[in-house]
Write a structure and sequence with these properties.
alpha+beta, Immunoglobulin-like, seven-stranded parallel beta sheet, six-stranded antiparallel beta sheet, 12 helices, 21% strand
Length: 569
C-alpha cells in the first residue's frame, strides 16, 4: 500500500471522513512530492493546482452516466438527480480520481468542488499543440493533446483541504486502497444477490400476494419483493404508516416470508406532519421544508436515533429487511423540489454540505434500524468513502447506454450501481435490459409502473426465466467477489482500464466491464441491433463463457441475440 495525506491550509470540520465510521488512514508514504502542489485562498474559495503528464488519462469522480475519460474536462461535484451533460453532476459525485500514471487523489470535502482536468495557464513556457489552423474547421475542432497542462481544483468556501494521494501498479490497486480507507466492501448474504422485484405502486396486499404466488408457481427465481410509495398513507412527504391497501401488514409480511421472500420498502426522509415522530424530530431538522415535510438532520445523534428507533420498531421488527431510500439527492434540473443550498441544519451543516452527505447519513441511520438484517438495499445518493455500505445506486434517468456506462464507471469510486429494468417498448428492449441486470451487482426489476408482469406483457417469459436462472448460478461468484471486496477493497465490477491500465486500447471503452474477477461482460444496448464490437485485452487469454471455446484477444465483431460474456483463463 502507498498512501499519504497532504494537509493544506485549515480544512473544514464537516467532511466525509468525519462521518465515516470505518475510516482507517495509515500513512505508508508515496513518491509523489508535496512540492508539486500549489495552493492559495482566494475570494472564490481554496485553490489547489498541480501539473499532470501530457499522456495522463483521468477516470472516476463517482457515478458519471454521461462521460467516461475526463482529461481536459471541467467537472463540478454537484449532487443532481438528473444530470443532463457530462459536467460532473451526478446522483453520486465523488471527489476522487485515478490516472494511468500510477496515482489517484481523494479530496476530503463535502463541497461542490470543481476539477479542471488539464488546462494551460497564461505565462507558462509552452510548446503549442498542433492543430487549430485558421480557416480549417476540421483542424480547428480536432482533438489534440495539450502540453504543460495543470489540474486546478476549487473548493468553495473552504480555507484548506486534506488530499489523500494513493499510488499503485494499476488503477485497480489504487481504487482498492481507497476502498479500504473506508473499511472495505460490505458483507452481503447470498439471497441479497437474487432478483428484487418491485411491484406496481397501485397494487394492494392481495394483488402483491398473487404476484408472489405467480413467481413461485412459474419457477421465476426471486428473493425479494419491493413495495413502492403506495404502501404508505402519505408518500410525498412520508408518513411511514401502512395505508388501507395493506389492512393487515403483519399478515401480509408473514405470507411473503413463509414463501421465502424478503421485503423491501420504498421511502424518503422528508417527514410528513402525519408521521408519528414528526413533533419529536422537528427540533433536529433543517430550516426548509420539502413537499411540506421536515428534512431530518441525520448528522445530529438525536435526529438519527429518533428516525432509526421508529423504523426499527414499526418496520424492521415486523419483518422488513431492506429499504429503497429515494429523493436524497437534489433536483436542479427537475423543478428544484429539494431543499436549497442556503439551508441550515442544527448540526452546523449548510445545504451544500448536507446535499453531499445526505445519502450517506440516511444510510447510516437506516443501518442503525436494520441492525444485523443487512442485505443490498437501494439509495439515490451516496458520496465519498462509501464502499462499506450495502446500498446500490439507481436513477430516474433511463437511457440504456448511460446505464451501461454507469456500471463501468461505478468501480472507480467505491460505489455500486444497479442498471435496473424499469420499462420497455418492445420484447427486444425487455430482454436486452434484463441481460444487463443479470450481470450487475444487483438484479433489480423495478416494475413500479407495470400493472402486470413486464415479461408477460412483452411476451418473453421463457427468455427472462432462463436469464434469471443464469443469475442464480452467478451467486457463488458474487459471494466470492464480495468477500474479496470486503477484505482487500477490490471492487466486484471494474472497467477494463482498471486491470489493464497499461493497455491504451482500454482508455475509451465505456461499454464493457469485468465482473466477479474472471468474466468480461459486453452487453448490447437496446435498440442497437444484434451486433457490436468487442475488445478482449491482449494481456490475457479468453474463452466464451457459455460454450467454453477459446476466443482470440483483440477487437472483433459479434452478432447475437444473447449477451457476449467471456471468461479470463
Amino acid at each position: 500500500m502507498s498512501m499519504k495525506r497532504f494537509t493544506f491550509g485549515t480544512p473544514e470540520e464537516f467532511v466525509p471522513s468525519k462521518f465515516c465510521d470505518g475510516f482507517n488512514y495509515v500513512e505508508t508514504g508515496v513518491s509523489y512530492p508535496e512540492s508539486r502542489f500549489s495552493c492559495k485562498r482566494t475570494k472564490q474559495g481554496f485553490i489547489v493546482e498541480f501539473p499532470i503528464e501530457d499522456d495522463c488519462q483521468i477516470f472516476g469522480f463517482g457515478l458519471q452516466l454521461k462521460t467516461f475519460a475526463h482529461r481536459s474536462r471541467k467537472l463540478r461535484m454537484d449532487v443532481n438527480a438528473d444530470p443532463a451533460t457530462g459536467n460532473g453532476e451526478s446522483h453520486a459525485p465523488v471527489p476522487f480520481f485515478v490516472t494511468n500514471k500510477g496515482y489517484g487523489m481523494y479530496f476530503d470535502t463535502a463541497r461542490y468542488a470543481e476539477f479542471y482536468c488539464g488546462k494551460q495557464r497564461n505565462g507558462d513556457s509552452l510548446t503549442l499543440a498542433e492543430g487549430g489552423a485558421a480557416g480549417d474547421i476540421n483542424s480547428l475542432y480536432a482533438a489534440r493533446t495539450e502540453t504543460s497542462a495543470i489540474m486546478s481544483v476549487r473548493i468553495p468556501c473552504a480555507d484548506g483541504i486534506d488530499i489523500y494521494v494513493i499510488e499503485g501498479g494499476s488503477i485497480t490497486d489504487i481504487v482498492s486502497q481507497y476502498n479500504m480507507l473506508s473499511g472495505g466492501g460490505p458483507v452481503v448474504p447470498e439471497w441479497g444477490f437474487g432478483m428484487l422485484y418491485r411491484a406496481y405502486y397501485k397494487w394492494d396486499s392481495e394483488k402483491v400476494k398473487s404476484v408472489a404466488d405467480y413467481l413461485r408457481s412459474s419457477d421465476i427465481p426471486c428473493d425479494i419483493i419491493g413495495l413502492e410509495p403506495g404502501w404508505q398513507t402519505h408518500a410525498y412527504s412520508c408518513s411511514f404508516k401502512w395505508s388501507d391497501r395493506y389492512p393487515d401488514p403483519d399478515g401480509f409480511i408473514a405470507y411473503l416470508r413463509e414463501r421465502g421472500f424478503h421485503i423491501n420498502l420504498w421511502q424518503h426522509a422528508f417527514t410528513h406532519p402525519e408521521a408519528e415522530f414528526h413533533k419529536e424530530i422537528a427540533p433536529y431538522s433543517g430550516d426548509w421544508l420539502v413537499w411540506g415535510g421536515l428534512v431530518p438532520d441525520f448528522a445530529t445523534p438525536e435526529g438519527r436515533k429518533i428516525f432509526a428507533d421508529y423504523t426499527r420498531s414499526y418496520l424492521v421488527e415486523r419483518g422488513i429487511d431492506g429499504f429503497k431510500l429515494d429523493e436524497c439527492d437534489s433536483s436542479d434540473n427537475t423543478g428544484g423540489w429539494s431543499f436549497p443550498l442556503i439551508s441550515e441544519f442544527p448540526s452546523g451543516l449548510d445545504g451544500e454540505q448536507y446535499h453531499s452527505l445526505f445519502g450517506t447519513l440516511y444510510i447510516k441511520t437506516v443501518m442503525d434500524a436494520l441492525g444485523d438484517n443487512i442485505t443490498l438495499s437501494q439509495v439515490r445518493n451516496i458520496g465519498a468513502l462509501a464502499a462499506s455500505y450495502p446500498f446500490v445506486l439507481y436513477s430516474d434517468l433511463y437511457d440504456h447506454r448511460d446505464f451501461i456506462r454507469g456500471v463501468v464507471n461505478s468501480g472507480f469510486s467505491g460505489i455500486m450501481w444497479a442498471p435496473e429494468f424499469r420499462s420497455a417498448h418492445s420484447k427486444e428492449e425487455c430482454v436486452r435490459r434484463m441481460q444487463t441486470i443479470v450481470f450487475s451487482v444487483q438484479c433489480l426489476v423495478n416494475a413500479w409502473n407495470y400493472d402486470g408482469i413486464p415479461w408477460v406483457v412483452h411476451e418473453c417469459e421463457a427468455e427472462v426465466r432462463e436469464l434469471l436462472k443464469l443469475r442464480e448460478t452467478l451467486k457463488p461468484r458474487l459471494m466470492k467477489a464480495f468477500k474479496e471486496y470486503h477484505e482487500t477493497g477490490r471492487p466486484p465490477v471494474r472497467a477494463l482500464v482498471m486491470d489493464y491500465t497499461d493497455d491504451k486500447e482500454t482508455y475509451g471503452i465505456d461499454n464493457e466491464w469485468l465482473f466477479c474477477d474472471d468474466l468480461l461482460v459486453a452487453p448490447i444496448a437496446a435498440g442497437t441491433g444484434d451486433t457490436r464490437e468487442v475488445y478482449l485485452p491482449v494481456a490475457s487469454d479468453w474463452v466464451d463463457f457459455f460454450t467454453g471455446e477459446p476466443v482470440k484477444s483483440g477487437r472483433f465483431k459479434v452478432e447475437t441475440r444473447g449477451i457476449p460474456v467471456y471468461r479470463r483463463v
